Inverse folding.
């Protein structure tokens, strides 16, 4: 069993759940019992909201530079503890610790918003005779972030960093599948200098999230997770106090590979995209549209590129693909493998090699209407289709309820830009998949992949309300 602290982090203090509830965490690699984690109920949620209310206005009254200094100290602590963060996530959700850069990545997000929070500007207008009109930006007050398990630290940073830079207090609800890295870093919130109540960490399952989504004194909620839960949160918000809601949801991301593309580079990039984190990535390229002239060569190259993944213990340095995060994930992946075998042809992989492990798998000859092609698998499973011309490829890509990420591979720059513009997607990679290299560009989804944006300057705006003031002179 892990010895790390697993209590709730309320008012800068590790606190047991008032009702005494806990839930167990098991290692998906070997089934061992890793920890029992406190589960927040109604009284704990209320305690966190009260602490946030007490703290937030003083926090908002600080100079931006003072908030930024605390955020930068916190970023430094995340960097220092990056290895432990990676090891904890390896044990609870199977992501290989080697190469897991979430600690450093999350630190960069805190640094970025520390800088941005120092320069929050409104607007002014002299257009109305007899008036000087100004608009100022103000924080919401008590806010909530509900996060998934596949990138615990990153999802936390995408919400907490802009929220506190804008002067809000935030309560983070971790995922019941992967709470440990956030439980571990909770103590650095106080060490960095955040006053009690500004960043609080609650653990628990959907019920805890629901209590927060329905809470009448929470003004803003930012959610990352499945489209199904996003819908429930939107409804809970509508039925309670009409919270401002940001949603980062699921995807079924398409990639087009034209006949002039570098086949090996495209195959290697697509293999990494669907194999990274065992395919449990919202922007994984899971639908590939390949020009008919190169279809067979591409499928072969993709299979070759998939051989690079090495299954094993996520704590071992040589492991590049861990298990699915838990039994429920494995059941889902197995179900969709079954759909693929009924509806089409296995061109590569297709087997579970050990409990919770799946070979990276390519399906071909899948009807476009198949569930495998329409629904998010969240596993290392890709479908490859043929296309004849550009219009057909774009039409097929856009025939999806999702619109989170898309990519296009071609050496023709005009075509790349033309196609990128027509794809219905929040982000498009040109000759690359899923890079997410930039902290300064908006990230989010079209259609059922989300509402609103995170990352970059657009990621700060959703944590601020506008207030216009009409000054008679
Ligand atoms: P999930 O929707 O099952 O759970 C996400 C969070 O919501 C968890 O903390 C969970 O406890 C909580 N929750 C569950 N029911 C709730 C309810 N009724 N009210 C409030 N909270 C509730 O998603 P998951 O399995 O943790 O994550 C995988 C999903 O997240 C995938 O669909 C993936 O595409 C998506 N995702 C999206 C992005 C993005 O940026 N768009 C990033 C990562 C993951």
């Amino acid at each position: 069993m892990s010895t790390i602290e697993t209590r709730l982090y309320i008012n800068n203090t590790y606190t047991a759940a008032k009702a005494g509830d806990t839930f167990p965490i098991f290692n998906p690699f070997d089934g061992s019992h890793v920890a029992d984690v406190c589960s927040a109920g109604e009284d704990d949620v209320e305690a966190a909201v009260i602490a946030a209310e007490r703290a937030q206005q003083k926090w908002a009254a600080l100079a931006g530079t003072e908030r930024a200094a605390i955020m930068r100290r916190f970023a430094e602590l995340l960097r220092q503890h990056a290895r432990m963060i990676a090891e904890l996530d390896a044990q609870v959700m199977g992501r290989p610790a080697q190469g897991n850069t979430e600690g450093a990545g999350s630190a960069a997000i805190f640094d970025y918003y520390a800088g941005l929070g120092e320069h929050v500007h409104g607007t002014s207008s002299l257009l109305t005779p007899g008036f000087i009109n100004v608009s100022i930006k103000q924080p919401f007050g008590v806010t909530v972030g509900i996060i998934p398990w596949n990138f615990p630290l990153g999802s936390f940073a995408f919400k907490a960093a802009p929220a506190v830079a804008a002067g809000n207090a935030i309560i983070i609800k971790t995922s019941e599948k992967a709470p440990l890295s956030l439980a571990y870093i909770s103590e650095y919130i106080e060490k960095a200098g955040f006053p009690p109540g500004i960043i609080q960490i609650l653990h628990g399952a959907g019920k805890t999230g629901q209590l927060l989504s329905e809470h009448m004194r929470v003004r803003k909620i930012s959610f990352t997770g499945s489209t199904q839960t996003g819908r429930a949160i939107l409804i809970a918000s509508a039925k309670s106090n009409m919270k401002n809601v940001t949603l980062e949801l699921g995807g079924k991301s398409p990639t087009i590979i034209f006949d002039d593309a570098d086949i090996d580079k495209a195959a290697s990039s697509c293999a990494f995209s669907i194999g990274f984190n065992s395919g449990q990535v919202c922007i994984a390229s899971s639908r590939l549209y390949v020009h008919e002239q190169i279809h067979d060569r591409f499928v072969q190259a993709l299979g070759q590129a998939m051989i690079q993944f090495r299954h094993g213990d996520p704590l071992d340095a040589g492991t590049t693909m861990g298990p699915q995060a838990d039994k429920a994930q494995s059941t889902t992946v197995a179900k969709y493998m079954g759909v693929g075998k009924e509806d089409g042809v296995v061109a590569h992989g297709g087997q579970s090699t050990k409990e919770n492990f799946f070979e990276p798998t390519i399906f071909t000859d899948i009807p476009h209407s198949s569930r495998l092609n329409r629904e998010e698998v969240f596993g290392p499973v890709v479908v490859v289709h043929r296309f004849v011309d550009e219009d057909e490829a774009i039409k097929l890509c856009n025939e999806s309820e999702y619109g989170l990420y898309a990519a296009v591979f071609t050496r023709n720059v005009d075509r790349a830009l033309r196609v990128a513009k027509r794809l219905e997607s929040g982000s498009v990679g040109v000759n690359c998949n899923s890079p997410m290299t930039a902290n300064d560009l908006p990230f989010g989804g079209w259609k059922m992949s989300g509402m609103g944006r995170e990352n970059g300057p657009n990621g700060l705006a959703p944590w601020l309300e506008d207030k216009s003031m009409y000054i008679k002179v």
